[in-house]
Automatic annotation (TrEMBL):
GO terms for biological process: proteolysis. Pfam families: PA, Peptidase_M28. It comes from Solibacter usitatus (strain Ellin6076). This is Peptidase M28. One of its GO terms (molecular function) is metalloexopeptidase activity. Residues 280-482 form the Peptidase M28 domain. InterPro entries: M28_fam, PA_dom_sf, PA_domain, Peptidase_M28. Residues 112-233 form the PA domain.
Length: 501
């Protein structure tokens, strides 16, 4: 009968697909088991185990047929000495200590300078807003509010109730540095989140990696102050912190000004300091088009985690062995297929847990021009669920800055059928926009999105183990990332970076 051969073909194709999926599961399990093993001891930055992980990824890239290399970058690990950390306020000839709530710096510092209040510390020409337009910060210490104006208003030009890139502390400190500031003092913006300072026990406590920094002499220190100290510093303006913030938010006009007769002295030294190198593992699959192969689609993840703390291993299965295994699997898949028109760069960064040091270093020292990098797909924590019943949901973070990239991913998702959510782009409480390796690329003006399963039970805990991963979800994310990367590499109209009109 005519249908017989057709049925055989369908059965054969279905069987081949199942075999391929099973083979992929075997590879993923092997990668995940190794990355989370006792041998790699949690892959903490600057450890021999982290280097083993980077070299393992590099070897897998080479086995897949990529042109691969390890990019080393200088890192300084440090531990502050609380007894040697002092902030002094001098006014009217009298001095008293300030109580820094958080803060440290990778090198010893001694700074004394006048203080200027610079609002939210934002220069956002696209919103016709600049806190530095009427104040000279050069050679001064700047005091700024955290977050950004009007963040509780859905009508705010600053992405409504979500965040823009200007709200992040990294962007604020960089902006202060560009304006010549010597140091930054940060006040949690008083109208909205002051409870975090008043009751720090209410903030979720998670294990974290020991502090590290890229060895860069141009960096400036930043400290977060207590509410009482901020109120005292700003008292010379004749207004309270809440009144100053409300004035900015009401008119969207900066209230920046020098703080009359006010100097702050910062002295801090470290109890420990050690220098070393961390590694980014990078593999290139060159494109097929003679003209377009100079352009790049970047697929990224990070491999480091939290190591061993208090004799407990933090294996980091979801964070981020899942993304690391996915990038290696994508390299294997794409290397076997016909080459897309543009080149695809696979980058697995080190030292993400230390505030994205590897990806920040890469954007400052790119191996492929950022000017011709068309899109970034970042995979981090993609194999767990943030809430019960969300086994098919993946958050896309950063799409506010490229609706075209979001549309391209959604188009490819018609085949995969994941539940794609952009709700975290309108969220301010968790600061999600600033917490992963897509951030340095967004700050560089590139369309970049973070594929993210959400914060799950066991996040930054010893219980983040392979047995709790949702491997079918991981496979679906790999499929969507694969199809999106190929489509972006072949399109005649790559996505653009920009704020929605």
């Amino acid at each position: 009968m005519p249908a017989g051969p057709f049925r055989l073909v369908v059965v054969f194709c279905a069987s081949a697909l199942l075999i391929a999926q099973d083979a992929q599961l075997t590879r993923l399990h092997a990668d995940l088991d190794f990355l989370t093993s006792d041998v790699l001891a949690g892959r903490v930055s600057l450890s021999p185990q982290a280097e083993i992980a980077a070299r393992f990824i590099d070897a897998e890239f080479r086995k897949a047929g990529l042109t691969s290399q390890l990019q080393a970058f200088p890192v300084v690990g440090y531990r502050s000495d609380p007894k040697q950390r002092q902030l002094l306020l001098t006014r009217g000839g009298a001095s008293r200590p300030l109580h820094a709530f958080t803060g440290g710096f990778y090198r010893d510092i001694a700074v004394r300078a006048p203080v200027v209040f610079a609002g939210y510390g934002i220069t956002a020409l696209e919103y016709a807003y600049d806190d530095y337009a009427t104040v000279n910060a050069s050679g001064r210490i700047v005091l700024i509010f955290d977050h950004e104006p009007q963040e509780d208003s859905a009508a705010s030009v600053f992405n409504g109730t979500g965040h823009t890139l200007h709200a992040g502390r990294a962007a604020k400190v960089l902006n202060a540095r560009r304006h010549g500031a010597l140091a930054v003092l940060i006040a949690t913006e008083p109208s909205h989140h002051s409870y975090i300072l008043a009751s720090p026990q209410r903030a979720p406590l998670r294990a974290s990696a020991p502090p590290q920094a890229i060895d860069d002499p141009a960096q400036i220190p930043a400290f977060t102050l207590s509410e009482a100290d901020v109120k005292d510093l700003l008292s010379v303006t004749g207004r309270t912190p809440v009144e100053l913030q409300d004035a900015i938010d009401a008119s969207l006009r900066p209230q920046s000004q020098p703080l009359r007769d006010t100097e702050v002295e910062i002295r801090a030294s470290n109890a420990e300091q050690h220098r070393g190198s961390s590694l980014n593992a990078i593999g290139l699959l060159e494109g097929s088009d003679p003209e377009l192969k100079s352009e790049t689609i970047l697929i990224s993840a990070h491999y480091d985690h939290l190591g061993v703390q208090n004799e407990h291993l933090y294996p980091g299965a979801n964070d981020n062995a899942s993304g690391t295994a996915a990038v290696m699997e994508l390299a294997r898949l794409l290397a076997k297929e016909p080459r897309p028109r543009r080149s695809i760069l696979f980058a697995v960064f080190g030292s993400e847990e230390q505030l994205m040091l590897g990806s920040f270093y890469y954007t400052a020292h790119p191996l492929r021009s950022l000017a011709t990098t068309r899109a970034v797909l970042n995979l981090d924590m993609i194999a767990r669920d943030d809430i019960e019943g969300a086994s098919n949901r993946i958050h896309l973070v950063g799409t506010y800055y490229s609706r075209e990239l979001l549309a391209a991913i959604r188009a490819q998702n018609r085949k995969t059928g994941l539940d794609l959510s952009t709700e975290l782009d309108a969220d301010q409480a968790l600061n999600v926009l600033f917490r992963c390796d897509h951030l340095p690329f967004l700050l560089s003006g590139l369309p970049a999105v973070w594929f993210f399963g959400g914060f799950h039970p066991g996040y930054h805990e010893p219980s983040d183990v392979v047995e709790k991963l949702n491997l079918p979800k991981l496979q679906n994310v790999i499929r969507l990332a694969h199809d999106s990367a190929v489509a972006l590499a072949d399109t005649s109209a790559p996505p653009q970076f920009g704020i929605p009109k």
